[in-house]
Amino acid sequence: MDLHQLIRHSDSHWEIPMEGAMRVPAYIFADLHLVSEMDDKVREQLSNVACLPGIVKAAMGMPDAHWGYGFPIGGVAAFDPDQGGIISVGGVGYDISCGVRTLLTGMKRSDMEPFLETVIDRLFQTVPSGVGSEGKIRLSPEKLDDVLLGGAVWAVEMGYGLPEDLAHIEENGRLPGADPSCVSATAKKRQYRQVGTLGSGNHYLEIQYVEEIFHRPSAEALGIDTDDVVIAIHCGSRALGHQIGTDYIQILGRASQKYNIPIRERELVCAPIDSQEGRRYYRAMACGVNCALANRQVICHLVRQIFHEIMPSAVIRTLYDVSHNTCKIEDHDVNGRTKRLYVHRKGATRAFGPGRSELPEAFREVGQPVLIGGTMGTCSYIMIGRKSGEELAWGSACHGAGRAMSRRAALRRWKGRKVIAELRHRGILIRAASYRGAAEEAPDAYKDVTRVVDSTHNAGLARKVALLRPMACIKG
Hints:
The chain is α+β, with helices and mostly antiparallel strands. The chain has a single domain, classed as tRNA-splicing ligase RtcB (Alpha-Beta Complex), CATH 3.90.1860.10. The protein is 33% helix and 25% strand. Strands 7, 8, 9, 11, 15, 16, 18 and 19 form an eight-stranded mixed β-sheet that branches. The chain has a seven-stranded mixed β-sheet with strand order 1-2-3-4-5-13-12, with helices on both faces. Strands 6-10 form a two-stranded antiparallel ribbon. Helix 4 packs across helix 9, helix 6 packs antiparallel against helix 8 and helix 8 packs antiparallel against helix 9.
């Protein structure tokens, strides 16, 4: 990215000044290296987002930002319905509510190591992964509607998990406002055998250990310590979420014309929040969120079963579950007044600071856990939300390392079999649905997650709490 086109506010805060049809400026939260390496398409897309009706304060890019459809991945924008604000498929993405759940095990690294290969093999056999993967749960259209309305609450009621899981999931496991009648029959048909499956791409199920603690008071509040074994589940709403996006790109495309909203990129099509089309998309998107929450809840249940089968002393508890690709209705301070905004986070994580009523009581005094996925060969992080992040970016943070290379380029450079062998040589066990998927997910195809997290920390968006190293990973 051309730095001459940016205003530098601090080492980790840059501004794209208003020009042309931009209604607000755009902010990028990243260090000099990350900003320099970003494609100019990120600047272009943020500038386009800044032109949308009803946008408040700025269009924002997180440190892991890279080119996406409409919004950049790592993009954040809030819209005010009282000012003609819009809702956009491009601001949510196709994998609705793709997110991470981190589980505590009560085990130390030394406890896990003798059982690691057995556990990862059993998990690989039990949790379906890969393109088009299907699980054992079969749902009629009526039962699927229960999932879309109930989310993780439905899963727990059906026996997939524990009631105490729900308090440690965003929205307590169920996003209000869902309406299955706003989801097409095609989307439902694609999903009826996919609840409890990982899918493909960058989705994973990973056994990790805590290598380093950076802020002990926060770590103690979260219940983690050095050498603790944790499990990360990263997946989303599978085919249903993708089909909702596909369907509503068409619907909102017509709405953009109907309401005379200038569109600078096809995937930025949108509708006023208070329009019929806007309301229907929000209700369909909420169904996608609930589908993803149910999906991760069922996988959590399967993980519990395997751990208890092999290591009966393990106590699997949900630390927290966060979503990346959402539009949420939230109250925020705007020029000294509390306003209800529609906050789009695409490849970005909610990161509320202390005191927010949306947080579980256990975390209300310290802030929201923010779960940052890295790569299967490097590391991941746990952060915690800060009040300053609410002031800067609507309580938002990065979501992962962010790709530095396209999947096609990764396939030209690496062979999946060799990637898996090299990681095993380093002590990291990989189980992949395909060698192609392993090559696409080669660690060097991603940005440096440590640099991304440090930028997030230094910008004041969230506080760095712990570094997690992979022990074994299932990749779709």
